[in-house]
């Protein structure tokens, strides 16, 4: 039985799909999560430094949670400066100014008070001393990878260790820069911890117990900074005016094994492995079999599928395949193949959509091993702006008006097929007449784009295929940049996508995403960051299918 253990659920899901046809307990659990998210999200705030002289808000931000109706905010000491002004932004877009009060650095606790009088959305405080291993929890805060958004991102996890080192709580709720000071909730909607720091492993997310804030409440009110070397006397009693007793226990998840095992048979055969070549690289992806107008096709992520795809079905059989359409905007590719099994029926009229009200909805992705990964819908219908320019690990030089390939002096996630001494004459069949013109053209391309260089190599005209890379981060590197699998090469410049916290590897993009009812809601299109994976929704996939098939039929 899966009694009182979300961890057991996660383990089982590694070998099964996620449909609950025979049990309403997980559906109830999902609804409980969504209820908590709806209740507490209005008080989860985004915080940025504010210059009172210039009346200007800085670009950087971190997170916090309002815990009193008159505007006291819990956050992280490492993100604040006592006496500093801060812009407080609520999820509905409302902004106000607050002032940082005390900081107790050795427990990474800080307090901010909203300056103006008012009745503010707030959350109830619980207790962290009674937390149990495997207890479910929700994270709601503002990760830096989506820093331009005004809405917080939801993540679901469980307690790994309620008494980890340095008096922290270890959870599976993913964190990255920007999340600092954000709230961790139990499934009663009580604040139980605040985000503090991470380590390299995706399971090492360290939370500051809320009991530390209650214990040192009087120090936090002073407006002083208490450095790491100063350890104040503990208070044996907690006497804050907003303290509420923690609910005891947490709900179990009995009765789901049979449902998971049964659903597995229905979902695995819609996923395929794809191997192909792009430039000089061998690339791998997952694909999703879909059926439209009684014909079967494969949908996947275009930038990791070349024009020579080899399709491997779940039963190990390889089938012939051909790329018949691409969509550079959504990074989608359409593949025709022989003898495809199964297939997800695609219809214009569908209920397989997600909305803001669905945040916290369980989402399950087929992984590289054709098992499954669970996450929750963190945000829906968002735009991920372009923040990366095209780049090649090559130094181009102008030699008497000729653009030549010089030595490589950068570090990139990609190497190049060009060779030192090549004379570049064209890029994607456009003549290259200057060094600036070549750099501007490369900058305009997206990471992952396949390109063709026309070069003179040892006096002979040669066509060289290559893949545009991404400049590696050199400054302000953080341990969050080094998570397992890393980000997708192309992981930005998407419109109307959904975000979830499933641990998707870049080579698992193109695989299907289902909800807790087993309904197809889209495909994974990119791993954005340590915290976020991005999916293309059903409606965009259907539109792409119809558009490409219409083009083919008109030829």
UniProtKB/TrEMBL annotation:
Q: Which residues form the PDZ domain?
A: 413-461
Signal sequence coordinates: 1-21
**Entry coiled-coil feature ranges:** none
Q: Which GO terms describe its molecular function?
A: peptidase activity
UniProt-listed Pfam families: PDZ_2, Trypsin_2
Keyword set includes Signal = yes
Which UniProt keywords are listed? Hydrolase, Protease, Signal
Xref: InterPro entries: Chloro_Bact_Ser_Proteases, PDZ, PDZ_sf, Peptidase_S1_PA, Peptidase_S1_PA_chymotrypsin
Q: What biological-process terms (Gene Ontology) are attached? A: proteolysis
Q: Which domain of life is it from?
A: Bacteria
Could you tell me which PANTHER family the record lists for this protein? PEPTIDASE S12, PROTEASE DO-LIKE 8, CHLOROPLASTIC
Name the family the entry cites.
Belongs to the peptidase S1C family.
> Which protein are we looking at?
Serine protease Do
